[in-house]
Amino acid sequence: MSEYVWPDLGGSRDRAEAAQVWSETLRALPVGTPVAAEVIGRQPFGVFLRFEDHPDAIGLAEITAMPNCGCLELPDLGVRVTGVVIWHAEHNFQVKVRLDAWTRHLDDWSEQVNALGQNILGTVTRPTPFGVFVRISDCVEGLIPAADLPEPDTDAREGFREGQRVSVRLVEMDLIQRRVRLALSEEGS
């Protein structure tokens, strides 16, 4: 068996059938709903899920809902998992899920919530045209948007390099979407 496989949807499930049950799926699985599911497919970007109580709905737990700390292990086919609904992707009729097994680093996130508004020393991981990504702990990385940089009209890659230590202020955290907004602190880099 290949490490990665697409889900076997029984050969009969097509887009029209998925669209037909989509309204019921949205009613039954709103954002924030705890779910139990079986892994029915694995790809480098995440795992596909079949929900125990809603077998017509297809779930997807993407690695983007996992901290970027290099400790991700995708669950195997057939494994029962639990999690919470975080989004609905109407274009492909999928329910996005954050798996509980991938939240073992949630404590690291919770510690950072206590630091909101404070200055933290971080390490630049990726300067991009739209902002600078900075790691503030083992499993938490945030973005300083280009608009918040001292010279917002210049390419954010200018003036920052990978591995550079910078002092940042923790502005905002979204625990559901795993997003962190940072700003350069008054102390700068």
Automatic annotation (TrEMBL):
S1 motif domain mapped to chain residues: 117-185
Pfam family, one: S1
Top-rank lineage group of the source organism: Bacteria
Protein name according to UniProt: S1 RNA-binding domain-containing protein
Species: Glycomyces mayteni
